[in-house]
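To illustrate this point, what follows is a protein record of this kind.

___
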Amino acid sequence: MSKSFSAIGSAAQDDEIDREVFTPGIEPQATWCPGCGDFGVLKALKGAMPEVGRTPDETLLVTGIGCSGKLSSYFESYGVHSIHGRSLPVARAAKLANPGLEVIAAGGDGDGYGIGGNHFMHTARENHDMTYIVFNNEIFGLTKGQTSPTSPKGHKSKTQPHGSAKDPIRPLSMALSAGASYVARTAAVNPRQATEVLAEAIEHDGFAHVDFLTQCPTWNKDAKQYVPYTDVQQSDEFDFDVSDRREAAEMMHETEDKLYEGEVLTGRFYVDEDRRSYGEEKRQTGEMPEDPLAERYFDDDYEWERSYDLLDVHK
């Protein structure tokens, strides 16, 4: 992602970054259940950041509510534990104010695809330059096992004791149709691929959506453990162009069908390297300053403007 400016000091280009710098100095005891896939997300994210070349001081992690929301407590960086389904608008505001900051948002399938589904759709449509990691375990975990937007049809839970009558959403297809310029799926059981995918997503200029399959052994015992999995880039069975929207859409549809049939397909499904991000579009039209707003906080001589004075309608 864009490294044009950050109001926060950056590390020297040649400095190697140890993944352990992303472990808090006073590390809290993780409260995720034993066997939880969320540990896999944390491990992959810590492994991806040194590949990207970013330090904790150059990174902001915004999380929603749920088991996934604890990620910002276990990962050393600037962090915001926001409200339910609202991690994306907070992340968007931070990125617009300080484009050089590496912004990552994270949430669960209920948080991101349900309660925050509208923000997901419009953040993808506007192609904000950030990474969105969705912990997809097909259940509401923190609230003790309610049906989520990705729970399969017929899934029984406290809220659907006779089985869900609804088809699950298709998160990959939804991201593509909304306008995301990078769409991928990985799984906690595939740590090497997960690290590579997160590094690519973070480096991508634009909205990168990663559907991260995370098993929940406590509240979704009937769910698959997402093994065995198939990497669509490594398999001879699948041949499609990740830069072609139509081919990507067909591959995503097949992938989403197969997940509930017992076959787990992971990998990169769509990548558009040419589309400008929202911030770039706004600067192109002159609606955003070339000098980031965040820089002004460090200028003692700057005279603050009122938004009222900037709008012609009020003059």
Remarks:
- The chain has a mean pLDDT of 89.
- The two ends are 38 Å apart (CA to CA).
- The longest helix spans residues 38-52.
